[in-house]
Amino acid sequence: MLNSCTSDNIDEYNTEELVINSTYSTNNEDCGECDGRLKNISFKYTGNSAKYLVIKGSYNSGTYFCGYVYPNETFTLNPIGSNSILHRTLKFYQNGCYIGALKSDCTMPVEVGTTYGNYQVVGGESTNNGLLCSPEEEEVVEEGCTSCNEKATSLTLKYEGLVAGIVKVTQGQGEVAYNSFVFPGSKFTIVGEDSEGTLSDQISISINGLLNTTINTNCDNPIGPGLVSGLFMVVNGESKDGGELCPVADMPDDTGNNENEGIIID
To answer: CA-to-CA distance for 5 and 86, rounded, in angstroms?
Structure first.
């Protein structure tokens, strides 16, 4: 099933055998940053429903994956034929629609844990540094953090999209807080510029001119590191009267029952 390319929207290519449920050691002392070219890479699908996925190299260079992926399933992309490395550009098609591309020349952030849309890197190997490492733990929250109080004054966001694009952040009256070209895995910070140094009650984030998500920054809803909204994740922030924001997962339950509440905002 995994090697049958029958979708009318996908060109026919020679498909290399797919390795399912492969594992890598992320604590290997010999691991390193991606350097040179990727020899192989493993992903975990983090979506909530099965998707028909095709991954192929550009310029008719071959198909690396073709079949259904299910939640929490892992798969590995290996070189095709006599090649020892992956093609420089890997194009992703989900349910027949192009969703983005991954550069295998290490010019994009590639490490264990990097997320491109619903696909998380769980292992891999580059030509110059061997196995890919997990990122070092980032100290994004200082001791004494608190829940958001009054309004957020700054937010650092991580872009988790699959392809680079122009990200624009606007505030309540259309004021532009950020407008720049962003690569997958990149982080950027927005700060409040009103008389009190706070952000507006809500910010809107668009990618290439299309609205991707909105985030309430007036502290009415939980906000802090770990909050995922659209293709963006909060990794740090501060509020006017509370200082450093605590991770959303660490905030106390004020409702008495949040069993069915999540931190994902579509």
So the answer is: 20
Token reading at 85: 């490395």
Quote the Cα angle for 221-172-265, to 5°: 35
Among candidate residues 91, 45, 48, 93, the one with its CA nearest the CA of residue 69: 45
Number of H helices, E strands in the chain: 0, 20
Query: What is d(CA 7, CA 148) in angstroms, rounded to the nearest whole number?
Result: 48
| pLDDT higher at 260 or 51 | 51
Beta carbons of 54 and 63 less than 8 angstroms apart:
yes
* Residue 121: exposure state from Cβ atoms within 10 A (0-12, 13-18, ≥19): buried
Q: Which two tokens stand for residue 35?
A: 């350097």
**CA 66 – CA 68 distance, rounded (Å):** 7
pLDDT for the residue 136: 58
How do strand 264-265 and strand 228-229 relate by DSSP bridges?
parallel
C-alpha 135/C-alpha 197 separation (Å) is 33
pLDDT digits (tens, 9 = 90+) for 44-99: 998 888 999 999 998 888 999 999 999 999 999 999 999 999 998 888 888 988 87
Predicted structure pTM score: 0.51
* Sign of the CA dihedral running 172, 177, 182, 188: negative
- Nearest Cα neighbor of 189 from 165, 217, 169 is 169
- Bridge-partner residues for 147, per DSSP? none
Digit-coded pLDDT (tens) for 152-167: 988 999 998 888 888 9
**Are 215 and 229 contacting, i.e. CB atoms less than 8 angstroms apart?**
yes
Q: What is the C-alpha end-to-end distance of the chain, expressed in Å?
A: 31
Q: Residue 169: how many CA atoms within 13 Å on its side-chain side? A: 25
pLDDT of res. 19: 33
